Amino acid sequence: MLYCIIFIIIIIFYLFQINIDIDKNAHHVNTPRNLVEKEIYGEVEYFIVHNHNQSDHMFAYVRKTNSHKLDKFGQIHFDKLTSLQFIEVVGIDRYVAFFKIGQNFNYILDRERI
Fold first, then answer.
1. CA-to-CA distance for 24 and 37, rounded, in angstroms?
2. Phi then psi dihedrals of residue 78, to 5 deg
3. CA distance linking residue 44 with residue 46, whole number of Å
4. Nearest CA-CA partner of 24 in 39, 8, 35
5. By three-state DSSP, how is residue 6 classified?
6. 16 vs 78, higher pLDDT
7. Which of 24, 25, 41 is nearest to 91 (CA)?
8. Which tens digits make up the pLDDT trace of 20-76?
9. Which domain covers residue 50, as residue numbers?
10. Close Cβ partners of 46 (under 8 Å, ≥ 6 residues apart)
């Protein structure tokens, strides 16, 4: 029974670094797209599979972090988790870990930055 509880707890928390393309001109009408790749971090609430035109697509419903910053030691930190967004799973780059220090600081442990 203890193994089942531990397994369920591990499955609930998926923390990832995600690469998404953002259109810098999205708020302008009739302007060409200016796509910029942005790195975001988030916690996956759940995964879904959607079938469209006989093709399956997998999406993650992600609670994103607010803007992340580097501290004086080069470690990434953020203040809080913010809005939810559907992201196609192919955009998920790698698994990361979050840990909280004190009341206001949440740090991201990313192997590529250590």
1. 10
2. -145, 165
3. 6
4. 35
5. helix
6. 78
7. 41
8. 777 788 888 888 888 888 788 888 888 888 888 888 888 888 888 888 888 888 888
9. 2-26+34-113
10. 60, 61
Number of domains observed in the structure of the chain: 1
The answer to whether the CB of 71 falls within 8 A of the CB of 113 is no
Long-range contacts, 45-52 (Cβ 8 Å, 24+)? 45/84, 47/89
Residue recorded with tokens 């004190």: 102
Residues 42 and 65 sit within 8 Å (Cβ to Cβ)? yes
d(CA 83, CA 34): 23
- Rounded-to-integer distance, Cα 99 and Cα 13, Å: 12
C-alpha to C-alpha distance for 113 and 42, rounded to whole angstroms: 17
What's the DSSP call for residue 16? E
What gap in Å lies between CA 70 and CA 62, rounded to an integer?
A: 22
